[in-house]
Amino acid sequence: MWIADGWKSYEVLDCSGGEKLERWGEYLLVRPDPQVIWNTERKNPGWKKKNGHYHRSSKGGGEWEFFDLPKTWSIDYDLPLSGRKDSDIRKLTFNLKPFSFKHTGLFPEQASNWNWFSELISNAVKNGRTVRVLNLFAYTGGATISAAAAGAEVTHVDASKGMVGWAKENALSSGLQDAHIRWLVDDCHKFVQREERRGSRYDAVIMDPPSYGRGPGGEIWKIEDEIYPLVRDCAKILSEDPLFFLINSYTTGLQAGVLSYLLGSLIVPEYGGRAEAGEVGLPVTDSGLVLPAGASGRWNPQTK
After folding, report:
1. What is the mean pLDDT of residues 137-156?
2. In degrees, to the nearest 5, what angle opens at C-alpha 204 toward C-alphas 203 and 208?
3. Predicted pLDDT of residue 216
4. Can you point out the beta strands (E) in the chain?
5. Confidence class of residue 101 from pLDDT cuts 50, 70 and 90?
6. Predicted structure pTM score
7. Closest by alpha carbon to 168, among 194, 148, 191, 152?
8. Which residues on adjacent β-strands are paired with residue 280?
9. Nearest partner of 100 among 66, 68, 62, 74, judged by Cα
10. What's the CA angle centered on 110, arms 108 and 111, to 5 degrees?
């Protein structure tokens, strides 16, 4: 399991009864989590002193209940950049707000992936290489600003205009207003197909596809049907010497091994290396255990 244990301004304090108690900066939130099937005793006082509580509805969806929570706030993450000369740590700042379907605009467990690929990028840049990264289903830009902070040229693609705008704000807050980032509102798969026809090439691909979604033109996305052809087409726009490929999945029915199989069948035969996959997780402060939070598949040519 890849554990995002580098956070200072975020932590899972406790989890029980289908919910998790989280600290986001100075604010405490209680949100539902389908992985939390245990009913351990809720000893942490934060359960009673929460600033926000998302209540799941039995009919689907849910709604927030707020207790002295601002409309927006921010938290920081210290990104380690071993290959950079200017600093070993780059502070990233993420703007948060609670919105529909329990989210805050950030998936903290992805920090374990940010650390992984940012080291690959920063070392390559240190050695004089230009690294072009394509980030698909890029959401509010956690991976985009991590890659840009490491020195990559990033193309950020998401079907939601609002999410792309949010990502731009995160880049600005992180001091990356002059970074080489191309912001695009587009259907991810159609964009990849157009890039192939244009002859565009990328040194790395990051994708964080939803289980289900719609493109800007109403296109229906179902991960079980669409992920294989998308990875296949992404393989066609990789450079001759690609640096890495990352797939994230939150779909509980899609096991980690599926992601490594996709990469192993579509990327490894052409570029070598070995695909690997595993759960990503967050440490739980009170129990000392780890809460699983999805899966990732990783490839880079140096993996043996």
Report:
1. 97
2. 160
3. 63
4. 2-3, 10-16, 19-24, 27-32, 52-56, 62-66, 73-80, 89-96, 132-136, 153-158, 181-185, 204-207, 212-214, 220-222, 244-249, 274-283, 290-300
5. confident
6. 0.93
7. 148
8. 2
9. 62
10. 80
